[in-house]
Hints:
Chain A has 311 residues and is mainly α. Chain A has helices at 2-29, 34-39, 45-55, 61-74, 87-122, 127-141, 144-158, 171-205, 208-215, 220-249, 252-257, 263-273, 276-304.
Amino acid sequence: MLTYILKRFVQLVPVLFGITLACFFLLRALPGDPATLLLGARGGADEIAAMKQRLGLDLPLWRQYLLFLGDILSGSLGRSVVYGQPVMSLVLERLPATLWLVAYSTAIAVVLTIPLALWSAIRRDQAPDILIKLMFTVLLAIPSFWLGLVLVVVLAIWVPLFPTSGYGSGILSRLHHLTLPAFVIALATASLTIRSLRSGILNVLGSDYVTTARAKGNATSRTMRVHVLPNALISSISVLGAHTSWVIGGTVVIETVFALPGLGSLFVESIFARDYPMIQGLTIVFAVLVVLINLATDIAYALADPRIRLD
Amino acid sequence: MRMEGCKLPPPRQSGQDQGISMTTFRSMVSAAALALSILGPALTIAPSTALAQGVLKLAQTQDLVSLDPIATSDNPSIHAQLLIYDTLLRPSTDATKLEPGLAESWTVSDDGLTYSFKLRQAKFSDGTPVTSADVAFSLKRAGSDASSWKRFFSGIDAIETPDERTVVLKLKKVFTPLLNNLALFSSAILPQKAFEAAPDKFFEKPIGSGPFTVAAWNKGQALSLKKNAHYWQAGKPSLDGAEILVLPEGNSRVLKLQAGEIDAALEIPLNQMQSLGRAGTVKTAVADVLRTDFVLLNTKKKPFDDVRVRQALNYAIDKQGLVKALLYGAGKVANSPMPLMAYADPELKPYAHDVAKAKALLKEAGYGDGFKTSLLVHSGRPLHRQVAQALQSALAQIGVTAEIRLVEGGTHWSTTKAGDYEMAVSYASSDTIDPDQMAGFLIVNPERANAYHTEWKNERVNELYEKERATKDGPERGAMFKEMVELSHEGAPSIFLFYPGTPYAYRSTVSGFEVLPTGNFRLEDVKLK
Lengths: 311, 529
């Protein structure tokens, strides 16, 4: 296992190198540059030129790229044009909110998925199955900002169980604050995982080894736990992994509705301001996180199905 | 990177329901229920953020970028800086004149080249006195190469400090807007010693002589301020502190205000103002800020090089209708690109909504059959997207087909700056109360923006601009501004739309909270019941 993890980290190097190239040059292809946008209405031609020189934007592209690589190796990821601080320290300020949200929403999604998918599969084409399918199809179609606001009105204003927004401090307060946003994300994740797990279970239920297990006289619950679920989980783990990767950078709407200081909104703001070092740095951080989640997904495969060997 | 995870497995049919008993399912559900019941109590513990007595919780749309006054231009940063630092002078709350700040009095020599300021007995939040050396240091810094606002201090030739409480500024050339620029946030007075002791760390917890000082800044969440015990206005502020929260979503701000989690909020969605005010627990207000919204016309491109076309477009729009429908009445029709500020001419009537006249002007200019053009719109501004829709249909009535080009903010700015547009919805707002800055930006060409990238040029306006800057402030200078505004009204470098107000709201337990015409707010007079 350890060699496998190490191997994955070595594989990360070429991936990251490719990402630095792509994001560096794609960014420069966008209209507008940080100096012009930062100076805004105050910028005359001479002021913009001076600012470009100060930011090193007047250097040839290849030298800017090498400087960027140097910033990565030094660990600071460069200095944000807008905030004037090292990108790494800004990322570290925002990272916890994102990680909390990722972990909490994934946990809720798993808690929702397993029983509901089982119920759905067991009661295939009966009322519960149809109801679950209907409900989660509707949830999948509902825009998350609307669902978020409705939950706030119902569970924070009418019945004040949760705060309307914010992040809290301390573990309990943080969990309390993040319940509604994590729930909104979890519902979107669960809409996908319930469907995939349900079809996985139905598929496995028809296989010979389940019949054998039942013929041996196993209790139904044991059959489900030992034989059906582990075999059915694989595809759902993939779906969960892919969706979790999305949550890392794709929760701008949730962050906005619930006023959470996550990485998604920082990323979008940085793009609008053409804060090159910030965008580049965040892209690297996102890439590393996605690779880590993929790694976790692979480990989860191996845990769910011992036939999958990682080494 | 892994790709297979992106695909959903195809739905598969399996054999019949295997007849798993209900007990399996129940055991699973009860396990989940157990998990939730363990978590449950933890989740419903109320947050320990009960309102401390005397701390105002105020929500705004974005976090500030930095507390360094020479490096920022975003409103949240400016507003926070104005609570933490003092300037020598400051605009009065009604934005009509300059009033004493750290300087208790000042004189300008008859030749207009020497400004002397007498500092009041004031202390920074660390207890050290504010001296003339601090003022000299701060103003030099504001005019240095590192400053984004250098331009506004370039008129200062030398700064002298004859004694601890006297500062003398020497100019080479008369520059009347100087006093006004000294009231700008970027002229904030910083403690030289504390800054030089740790220039890199200073702005994380800066020291100023303003009514509040930074207690904590949780990026992306809130800036916590506490009362500056050494503040020079005796007995103020009455608040123990203020918490400026970041709540980007308009509905969230309204909900929190209704729930009593915050005391005041800026930028209330206009369509919710009425219902919010009806409950009685929340008061709503609209601040007349110094801002104009307009449609820039690229006078370098045909047919906008013809003044008759530009005037026709101004006649074609029902601007009063826009104020009613899009601003819910919270604004006024604009008569020029300049905001309604000092020396504005109340007699200057906006262009009337007159489609017949618009058509006649177009015909006279040789565009009787109308023309095709494009309209650049900032996609991140909902108001401007609505404006664009309304303009499109209004212009269609005079035969002008405008194609809407929706682009993101950075592209909008750089496209306009490059002159690569025909019409562009935009706006300008002023941080200062003297019209000099706005005039230089909006109607003077050549200047730094060449009449805000419309390239409109009027020699008389340029001449007046030079003259105004060298004329002592008073009615004579005021008449110059009036003439400039009138010329820009006639020359129509843009379609002047409206002066929108800034909607805000606060709970009825708050008294003395007001958004000022400069867009910021002072909190030293705010009280909580």
